[in-house]
Amino acid sequence: MNKNKILKTILAFLGIFAALTGIALSLCFQNSQPILLKRSEGVQTRVIGMMDAVCAGDYTAAGQQMYGTPSFGPDREAAEDVSALYWEAFSESMTYELVGECYAQENYIAQKVRITCLDFDSVTENLRERFMTLLEKKIAEAQDTSEIYDENNNYREDMVMELLFQAAEACLQEDAEMVTVEIVVKLTHEQGQWWVLPEKELLEAISGGILK
Fold first, then answer.
1. Element (H, E) at 87
2. How many angstroms separate the CA atoms of 96 and 81, rounded?
3. Could you say which DSSP state residue 13 is in?
4. Is the predicted pLDDT of residue 34 greater than 50, yes or no?
5. Domain boundaries defined on the chain
6. Residue 103 binned pLDDT confidence (cut-offs 50, 70, 90)
7. Is 73 helix (H, G, I), strand (E, B) or coil?
8. What are phi and psi of 73, to 5 degrees?
9. Phi/psi at 19 (nearest 5 deg)?
10. Percentage helix, strand, coil for the chain under 3-state DSSP, each rounded to 5
């Protein structure tokens, strides 16, 4: 893998979360009617079900709690080991609590939720620098060029991914910080059930700011 390609690999990883499966939203509010608080039974149950799924890393189940059943979350088929490592760390770090009781607005019922989770910015900020340091060390300590280069005189892809993984682990262990946000989860009532509205604020909070 040549130097230009390795640079692209690093940059691609830094943007890997942006390559997540697209958000399939089909919200329609034209026929929304004012919601009465007396119809709020099941609101918190729906919010808890959605948040529990996110904390378990099950974005498919989380989407099933939302209006329009959007498909979102990490692309498991395309994800490299490093991105899987980051997503697992993010899910495992997340905790939440409901704040107060749900309350009615004109076209929806709302429930405040306080979320604490891994700050993605803090664990990716130094990734490139850490990788380059590891690469330079690997080159300096190599006993044979075959440890570094393939038959085409490019950096070996397996070596690159190994070092990238090491750099990511170091970031998680040494640079990780937690962040707490308080959001308003909105719900709408349709076909006898409450559904979480997959709005921007919620998507950002449950994805560390990746989904916007």
1. helix 81-93
2. 27
3. H
4. no
5. 3-205
6. very high
7. strand
8. 115, -175
9. -95, 20
10. 45, 20, 35
Q: In what order do the strands lie in the sheet with 193-196?
A: 95-104, 109-118, 178-190, 193-196
pLDDT digits 0-9 by tens, 182-203: 999 999 998 889 999 999 999 9
**Which is nearest to 211 in space by CA: 30, 117, 52, 71?**
71
- Are 155 and 145 a contacting pair, CB within 8 Å? no
Residue (of 168, 154, 78) closest to 118 by Cα position: 168
Question: CA of 10: how far to CAs of 3, 77, 82, 211, in Å?
Answer: 11, 19, 11, 20
Question: For residue 20, which phi and psi values (nearest 5 degrees)?
Answer: -70, 165
pLDDT at 19: 38
Structure token digits, residue 39: 């119809």
pLDDT of 35 higher than 70: no
Number of residues in the chain: 212
- Rounded to whole angstroms, the Cα distance separating 85 from 124 reads 12
For residue 109, the cross-strand partners are 104, 187
Q: Would the pTM of this model clear 0.85, i.e. be above it?
A: no
Report the distance separating Cα 69 and Cα 72, nearest Å. 9
pLDDT digits (tens, 9 = 90+) for 6-29: 555 555 555 544 433 333 333 333
CB 43 within 8 A of CB 187: yes
**Cβ count within 10 A of residue 203:** 18
110: helix, strand or coil: strand
Residue 73 CB contacts under 8 Å (≥ 6 apart), including other chains: 20, 21, 59, 60, 62, 63, 207
Per-residue tokens: 19: 């390559």
